[in-house]
Amino acid sequence: MSYAAFKSEVAKVNDILCAVNLLTWDSRVMMPPGGVDARGKQIATLIGLARDIATGDGLQRAIEEARAELSGVAPGDIRLLAVEQAADAIGTLSRIPASLVGAAAELKTVSQAAWSKARAANDFAAFAPMLERTMDMQREIASAIGYDDHPYDALVATYEPGMTWNRLRGLYGELREALLPLLAEVKEANVRAEILDRAYPVDRQRAFSSLISSRFGYDFNRGRLDDTVHPFEISFTRSDVRITGRFRETWLPGGLFAVWHEAGHGMYEQGIPEEFSRSVFATDFVNLYAVGGASFGTHESQSRLWENRIGRSRRFWELNFADLRKTFPDQLSDVSAEDFWRAVNAARPGFIRVEADELTYDFHIMLRSEIEAGLMTGEIRVADLPSIWRERIKVYLGLDVPSDTLGVLQDVHWSAGMVGSFPTYTIGNIMSSQFFAAARKETAVELGLEAGDYLPLKTWLNDNVHQFGRSKSPSQLLMDATGSDLSTAAYIADLAHKVEELTE
Amino acid sequence: MSYAAFKSEVAKVNDILCAVNLLTWDSRVMMPPGGVDARGKQIATLIGLARDIATGDGLQRAIEEARAELSGVAPGDIRLLAVEQAADAIGTLSRIPASLVGAAAELKTVSQAAWSKARAANDFAAFAPMLERTMDMQREIASAIGYDDHPYDALVATYEPGMTWNRLRGLYGELREALLPLLAEVKEANVRAEILDRAYPVDRQRAFSSLISSRFGYDFNRGRLDDTVHPFEISFTRSDVRITGRFRETWLPGGLFAVWHEAGHGMYEQGIPEEFSRSVFATDFVNLYAVGGASFGTHESQSRLWENRIGRSRRFWELNFADLRKTFPDQLSDVSAEDFWRAVNAARPGFIRVEADELTYDFHIMLRSEIEAGLMTGEIRVADLPSIWRERIKVYLGLDVPSDTLGVLQDVHWSAGMVGSFPTYTIGNIMSSQFFAAARKETAVELGLEAGDYLPLKTWLNDNVHQFGRSKSPSQLLMDATGSDLSTAAYIADLAHKVEELTE
Ligand SMILES: [Zn+2]
Ligand SMILES: [Zn+2]
């Protein structure tokens, strides 16, 4: 009965965290303005309960008894894996003292408010003291978790198990070397950018992006699409996986690609097997978050794959532009599939990460990662961030940052105490190309893409990525699915091929 | 620190129960079809956690220490009241063994499925075994809770503290005696019923019912209105109180009055004082339900007051019919305010409780209460229900029940293990008239109603009902607000006056 006890405690934690996900979704999609304060307390209470159970004696005892019960089974047994994976993650969670967790949560509230004001006023100095305290606390958390080589490793690994700053630096170096020349080349590409900011009624944008999401394989019977300020995906087990979008009448790609991005995340969660529901393999014990994806980077690989590898491909628009034109006959009467594809691939260095194109996006991530790593060792000081930011953006993208609002103050992450999550965006980009290349080795996938039938690709992802939930590490998942660990080659090849097509 | 510990444990329970309310709301309003199974488990886990905390040693110790800490304070101190009220409710909750709670929850699932099938097939015999088991279990629960006089008392009191079958019988007798002659009289009233089932576009019904809800005083900044199959109200503290409606194009009053009914419930919850948020006075520990209203009957008094005492009054339509006609100019071009008011007050005995008018509604409740009381003592047997039902409906409403689907199988309550809640509908009707009569003694209220300004009435309800949350018993609340305990006089007077107006 001890493995059963273990399973049932884990299921409880997962249920609580799914409820937290719903409280979060609702607060961003449905909640009336008055509800904010009470909602914050409700979420804090549930997270606290989840933590209490996860780090409590009951689960610890169940883990030990399950180990004893399973002492005779074969080493690869999934139950053993479940127990050891939970023990490991709970170990990390337990090493962060409750007092530190509480202090971080309190600081987050005031720090986010300070950041919001500072950004509006373009006043970094007003935010700096909060940011210093946040970074001190993150350093404390890194020490509490522990690391071999670099304090940043401890934090990065909470989002991307197994990743280190040393490996990231290697990957970033390869990307810089390959992307800088591509970026120089693509500037000459011929683009009618103005076709994207005509007036596209929002309800028809929503309809078209839903139609394509269904074509990709997102299941609306186990999901729904709503409007929010910042698009996101969230799940309450595989059977209820919701996505949101944001549509602006005069910026067509904003709405479309965000929905396909979130649908990519959503298909991952919808593809978690039923038997993993409420299990360790659908629970992130370190971040106390109900999720079926193996890591933040792996998750991002799925969203980027559908958004960029498919949604921004030439073949996709050759096949689907006719439907878009049917949706917007007046707006697109003078536009060809080729024009449209070129326009949604326009590359131009800019200040804002979330508006960056494929060729410049990763530079924004490198910059942030380097700053985070430097802050964690103390080699970089908070006070110097504006100048360091300016310096590096100039080197990477050749731009002069006119204000901190367009620079170091643009992202919410640091004010929220998130250090170590930025690299997962680039990791996701890299992985997306690796998975995509491996999938295309199957004839059915390739023929499907050629014909506009996305089911073979989705099925390949189901079979090689989704179905394993969190039961494989990101590295193992990549190795098994693609034959190699994280490697920039496929991603660089995809971007080089894109530039080649664009400059034809 | 012990009263503080008590408060914080209670707040935790309230937070969990608010999360349960959101899980419930979402499952009825937003959840995609796939989500059902997982949602049921999430709700069960959270209710289990709330029960564990409520009946756990930690809260018990905090209660005892709080008693010690408060031993010197004045007897009426609100903190003492909070502690003793919690202790009392938790006492009731603790007397129901966890095994019985679990068995009841399991039975509910299969019983509801059986009821649903039996109703569709008009096959009471197929449902009877489940109903027998449900009633056995309710008898067990009644014994576990304990009672002085009648087993039904134990169950009724979980919904309406202090109420007994003996008192109910007295009230029912008074109502029967007064209403039967009124019902005979009103049949002669002159009504153009067909004006209500013209084609009324649903979006305009929603807009008009929202407009009037706002006029009544329901605050949409702390609430929202959505569509569901069965309208309801639910709250996540006073700052987020949601209502739902159901609109059918060819049945105008269905949508309007349901929304005003739910808005009445909603205003009660929005009127709970901020300092009661997350406290004993906003938590039903017996039913493990986050709610600020004093009892089910008290809650129903607020919904019925706005729905019937206001929404079905002649003066209301004299004042507001012009806006309705502006909303539906074509449909209502040949209809007067008087026609409309008469139509929405048409009284006619029918088989279905939820479609019953004001004059016949309580007979449906009496019938159910008598059956429930008889089942609890064993004087009535499940097998005899169809015939007993037929017999009593004939006596009360003069109708011959053509099928059990229109008779004993019509309500979901018994299959869900709810025994003792039906009386609260009639208690609510009675109370609504008592509160209304007391409020109208204030000149400002009366002048407001005359002028279509509902703020004075709402303010009176805020001051005399809502602001006390669950800190007064229903009886105390009535005594303080109206000068008398539960009494049928005002309700009978309201109905008699309505009949008089209708037969003018
Ligand atoms: Zn993403
Ligand atoms: Zn009601």
Automatic annotation (TrEMBL), chains A, B:
CDD domains: M32_Taq. It comes from the Bacteria. Its EC number is 3.4.17.19. GO terms for molecular function: carboxypeptidase activity. Keywords: Carboxypeptidase, Hydrolase, Metal-binding, Metalloprotease, Protease. It catalyses: Release of a C-terminal amino acid with broad specificity, except for -Pro. InterPro entries: Peptidase_M32_Taq (IPR001333). The keyword Phosphoprotein does not apply. Broad specificity carboxypetidase that releases amino acids sequentially from the C-terminus, including neutral, aromatic, polar and basic residues. Belongs to the peptidase M32 family. PANTHER family: CARBOXYPEPTIDASE 1, METAL-DEPENDENT CARBOXYPEPTIDASE. This is Metal-dependent carboxypeptidase. It comes from Neorhizobium petrolearium.
